[in-house]
Amino acid sequence: MKKILVTGGAGYIGSHAVVELRQAGYQPIIVDDFSNSQESALAGIEGILGSKVPVYRINCADEAALRTVFAAEPGIVGVVHFAAFKAVGESVQKPLAYYRNNLDSLLALLAVMPEFGVESLVFSSSCTVYGVPDALPVTEATPTKKATSPYGATKQMAEDILTDVAAAGGPRTILLRYFNPIGAHPSAKIGELPLGVPNNLVPFITQTAAGIREKLTVYGTDYDTPDGSCVRDYIYVVDLAKAHVVAVRRLLEKQATERVEIFNVGTGRGNSVLEVVRTFEEVSGQKLNVELGPRRTGDVPAIYADATKAETVLGFKTEGSLAEALTSAWKWQQTLGK
């Protein structure tokens, strides 16, 4: 069974990717320092798979510690790199922490991988690299513009680093530019587990419905969008996880035609924040206490993917609908309780 190192493998997207990798016949190896995840995710992964997954509790930015993992797990053939801080709003408040964590972890990984002959890397990138696009939907050829947040800037810098390193003979890399992952595994054993107050829309919605939060604030209702609220491309997290399996397979089977390939991973549809709220109310039967608030620094008014390249080149297409993803998120919240 081919071993795949998954950094940030106990996190929201990472835990779902670990499940999908294992079910596709790979042996995932988790590296996570649990600074932005919870250990309960490990029990959830085990509950779905019926077996444990190796876990190393280290900070991915610690090059020496990372080296011990590769040494302890001979035969690692690829890496999926999730480990990063990821909240746009928080990055505006704590830019240094984002630059340090997100770039140092990548640099450490790139320093250690060649020592152990690991030549394949799938990188967790983001649609934030496009900044505020001039036209929608965005394709992989859409020019990247100045990022609207330090988080987005770290993803742009990471992509530049990976491109330069690959050109110099470093690992072959697939950059997956995510749009907005939502929902939870259908088993309700793993899902989004924000520490403290959620930074993402859907967990804030479900926590409001569950009575944990008094109200949901919609930031900005005067954007140039159909209903004035921000528009995003919301992708079911299980679909997103499956995209990583396809990318890993493409690299290991040497199907990639360039040293660095870029794919948008989204549905190709845009939904507004208020539309997501309405859809959640419909599928859950819960009425939310919604407050309309001012715009939030760092937010892009509207962005959604042209997902054609992922479908034609990767052979990947999303399956879960917005309603299905929100239903799974509510089921997950109900298993968590208050």
TrEMBL record:
Metabolic or biological pathway: Carbohydrate metabolism; galactose metabolism
Positions of the NAD-dependent epimerase/dehydratase domain: 4-266
EC number: 5.1.3.2
Domain of life: Bacteria
Enzyme kind, highest EC tier: isomerase
Keyword GTP-binding found: no
A Pfam family matched in the record: Epimerase
InterPro entries: Epimerase_deHydtase, NAD(P)-bd_dom_sf, UDP_G4E
Keyword NAD in annotation: yes
Keyword terms of this UniProt record: Carbohydrate metabolism, Galactose metabolism, Isomerase, NAD
Catalyses which reaction(s): UDP-alpha-D-glucose = UDP-alpha-D-galactose
Gene Ontology MF terms: UDP-glucose 4-epimerase activity
UniProt cofactor(s): NAD(+)
Subunit details: Homodimer.
PANTHER family: UDP-GLUCOSE 4-EPIMERASE
Family in the record: Belongs to the NAD(P)-dependent epimerase/dehydratase family.
NCBIfam families tied to this protein: galE
Protein name according to UniProt: UDP-glucose 4-epimerase
Species per Swiss-Prot/TrEMBL record: Hymenobacter ruricola
Gene (UniProt): galE
